Amino acid sequence: MIGYVTLGTNDLEKAVSFYDQLFGSIGAGRFIENETFVAWTTGMNQPGVSVTKPFNGQPATVGNGTMVAIMLDTNEKVDAFYHKAIELGATCEGKPGERGDMTGFYAGYFRDLDGNKLNAFHMEMPK
Fold first, then answer.
1. Beta strands per DSSP E along the chain
2. What topology is assigned to 4-54+66-123 in CATH?
3. What would the pLDDT profile of 72-88 be if each residue is shown by its tens digit?
4. Where are the alpha helices (H) located in the chain, listed in sequence order?
């Protein structure tokens, strides 16, 4: 259903470097780019994430309550992705672990260099 999600940035060069390294750690690469916009995906039939300088020329700001969730297929990959983000300068919003009443939901939360909130998660389906 979702094609791609866009996050605003005030420093495109720094954001692109961050996401090249972070998304590269899960096999994602750039699939669209121009002077103000870059998007990454793991495949052309998969959703993507992009960063952009706002079209209206105003400063990028974070959305209160807005978050992008990156689905991974193991808890170990969630751990690795979260730790890579922190290593690249992201700030912790919740270390990886089981969450709430949702048995089998494992997630780690962080904010990117512009303050956009993301998480990496794995959901074990009940048997």
1. 4-8, 29-33, 37-41, 48-52, 68-71, 91-98, 105-111, 117-123
2. 2,3-Dihydroxybiphenyl 1,2-Dioxygenase; domain 1 (3.10.180)
3. 999 999 999 999 999 99
4. 12-24, 75-87
